[in-house]
Amino acid sequence: MTQLFDLTGKTAVAIGGNGVLGSSMAKGLAAQGAKVAIVGRNLEKANEVVQEIESDGGTAKAFQADVSSRDSLVQVANEIEKWSGGWDILLNAPGTNSATPFFELGMDEWDQIMDINLKGIVLSCQIFAKKMIEQERKGSIINISSVSSTTPLSKVFTYSVSKAGINSVTQYLAREFAPNGIRVNAIIPGFFPAEQNRKILSPERVESIMNHTPMNRFGTPEELQGATVWLASDKASSFVTGTLIRVDGGFGSMTI
Q1: What superkingdom does the record give (predicted)?
Q2: Is 123 exposed, middle or buried (0-12, 13-18, 19+ CB in 10 A)?
Q3: Which are the catalytic amino acids?
Q4: Residue 252 placed within a domain
Q5: CATH value at residue 186
Q6: 7, 107, 211, 225: least buried by Cβ within 10 Å?
Q7: Domain region containing 171
Q8: Which of 200-224 are b and which e, b meaning 16 or more Cβ less than 10 Å from the residue's Cβ?
């Protein structure tokens, strides 16, 4: 059974792989044998992730890119291709958030969040999937969504809108790329305290989250690795595409 999850010989591109959740998922891919390109705006953080992967015996390299810029993504795609020859797995895990009330929301902030959370994923899929098709490389694209994508959460209007868009992009591209042997799925994480949401986790909000999470706790970044590796494997999830996989401690099944 372990062969089902063996990623030896595969190359993964982890966009946003320098973040708390993205780095954990990237480490999970590396632990199963994938060669991983860690892509982020903060090259120092990306290099730290690379060092952790290498210290565990994996292979990785850090690359710098702005996910909201087509030119930047094209450049980093060329750099990764020179390094690895191509890729089989694309993990889209960039993200930013804000708790600005709706009537105070400025369009500059709206654009920033949408550029990173939604536009960036569209651009990366255009650029990296096109190259996969040109090279006739079958593979897997994994987008990171959120529980706020299906039922919007209070206080995070733009974030919720952007993540709802991710679900639609995922399902559309699953149909678009299926003839080329590229599967497209999304992971819907529950509450994993990361940089972009810690600032809005007041005691009252934590209590509300726990009241709607049957497992009565936050997730840990490592708990996203299993779903990531499963979706990345062309053996374990070969007939899975267009799906939205919840890793949320039951949050999506709970109401009042």
Answers
A1: Bacteria
A2: buried
A3: 159
A4: no
A5: 3.40.50.720
A6: 107
A7: 2-246
A8: eeeeebeeebbebbeeeebbebeeb
